[in-house]
From TrEMBL:
It is found in: Cell outer membrane. Residues 1-22 form the signal peptide. It is a multi-pass membrane protein. Forms passive diffusion pores that allow small molecular weight hydrophilic materials across the outer membrane. InterPro entries: Porin_alphabac. This is Porin.
Length: 392
């Protein structure tokens, strides 16, 4: 009996203690904060350390939507046939793009080690040319994934996929969207380049390049006559294309010169550019190019018509959010291009640009090139586009 009473009493005591504890508030220790991302501000905003490494990484890109209208040109409207009566007519040219960019940086005993990549995913009209009676060339579809940049840089040495130094070192031809109505050079290439920066505004560069793409144009035959042909812009031997450049920049602007040798076609080309910051609101530029055509009418470094071409224009800033941009281009083949736009930043990172483009093909189809090389539907064409772009 005493043992039974003792057991019952012990059980009751345990239940009482358990009940009392259950009635107390449960206290859970807060976890210590874990540092998953460590900010790296050495190379600018947006970089963070890759966990467990000394490498800084930044991820960014943009979403873009273009709607082109008017005559057929590089960035303008499209042509199609009516589904019911087959009549050829104008239509919109649309393109949506997602561009993914990455940057890395790390300090080493040999200097800063950097990388940059940009990959573009596009959906829109599948071709730049109206093709066939059914207008199939203007079908909307996924129109390709392109690797636009993938390079490694250590100090002044850069290797990988980039745009040609012939264009990037001088700078693009203005802040208009369609800046290649009269083209000033091709872009995509593998390269090995080295940039020397003296630190006083003077810099110089040398680049060994592979080239890319091809043209339907005119070439000289064995009898020194112009005949239709295809110019392949990729090197055809162990000898690379060579680009040399020099630049001097100050607060007032700058002057830049580049010269390029095309090893496959044994042609030379060069450009000189002057930039002037006229006021805090107005920036102007003018650029001239000259290239040989001994063996081919158009090549990787001389895609314009004839031997010489000129580009000029500028930017006027109404305020911090809105700017007016213009460019005029002309070449020896009497091709004239004009592009004007207004760009407005609605909110930080979101810009709307409306542009009007005009092209006049001076010597359409004559023997320095083959047919309508600008892609315009008529000798004199006008069109434009509206662009929405969100950068992040």
């Amino acid at each position: 009996m005493n043992i039974k009473s003792l057991l019952l009493g012990s059980a009751a005591a345990l239940l009482a203690v358990s009940g009392a504890r259950a009635a107390d508030a449960v206290v859970v220790a807060e976890p210590e904060p874990a540092e998953y991302v460590k900010i790296c501000d050495v190379y600018g905003a947006g970089y963070f350390y890759i966990p467990g490494t000394e490498t800084c990484l930044r991820i960014g890109g943009y979403i873009r939507y273009d709607a082109g209208f008017g005559d057929v040109g590089s960035f303008d409207g499209a042509r199609a046939n009516d589904r019911l009566d087959g009549e050829e007519q104008d239509t919109w040219r649309k393109q949506a793009r997602f561009a993914l960019k990455t940057w890395t940086g790390q300090e080493t005993e040999l200097g800063t080690l950097k990388t940059y990549t940009e990959t573009r995913f596009n959906f829109g009209n599948s071709s730049g040319d109206y093709s066939g009676p059914d207008g199939a060339g203007w079908d909307a579809r996924n129109s390709g994934i392109t690797l636009n940049y993938a390079w490694i840089q250590l100090g002044g040495l850069r290797v990988g996929k980039d745009e040609s130094v012939f264009d990037t070192f001088t700078g693009y031809a203005g802040n208009v969207i369609d800046d290649t109505i009269v083209p000033y050079g091709e872009f995509d290439t593998n390269l090995i380049s080295y940039t020397f920066d003296a630190g006083n505004g003077f810099s110089a560069i040398v680049s060994l390049e592979q080239g890319s793409g091809e043209y339907n144009t005119f070439v000289r035959d064995a009898a020194d006559n112009w005949v239709p042909g295809v110019v392949n812009n990729t090197i055809d031997s162990a000898v690379p294309n060579v680009v040399l450049g020099a630049k001097y920049t100050q607060g007032w602007g700058g002057i830049t010169g580049v010269v390029a040798y095309n090893s496959a076609w044994e042609e030379w080309a060069g450009k000189v550019r002057l930039d002037v910051n006229a006021t805090d609101q107005i920036a102007l530029f003018i650029m001239g190019g000259y290239g040989t055509d001994d063996n081919a009418a158009r090549t990787f470094y001389k895609p314009w018509g004839g031997n010489w071409a000129v580009w000029g224009g500028g930017t006027y800033k109404f305020n911090e959010k809105t700017s007016l941009n213009a460019q005029v281009s002309y070449d020896e083949q009497e091709n004239l291009g004009v592009a004007v736009n207004v760009a407005h930043q609605l909110v930080p990172g979101f810009t709307v640009t409306a542009e009007v483009d005009y092209v006049n093909e001076g010597k359409r189809g004559e023997a320095d090139y083959l047919g309508s090389w600008t892609g315009a539907s008529d000798e004199s064409s006008i069109g434009g586009l509206i662009r929405f772009q969100r950068d992040f």
